[in-house]
Design a protein that fits this description.
Blueprint lengths: L2 H8 L3 H5 L2 H15 L5 H8 L7
Helix pairs in contact: 1-3
């Protein structure tokens, strides 16, 4: 499973649409940790865009 796969699954949740940027970031990073996927902030930034860069 890749970072992009995880993000695609998470963003299908209705809660994702109403979450704050910090909550979205937390959901993504927590899921990656549970899945055992290594990532960096740059990885997340590349996939989800600039909205998370301030976090």
């Amino acid at each position: 499973m890749t970072i992009k796969d995880i993000f695609e699954i998470i963003k299908e949740s209705p809660l994702f649409n109403i979450s704050t940027s910090q909550e979205k970031y937390d959901a993504i990073t927590h899921t990656m940790e549970v899945a055992g996927v290594e990532y960096s902030s740059e990885d997340i930034k590349e996939i989800v865009g600039e909205v998370f860069t301030a976090l």
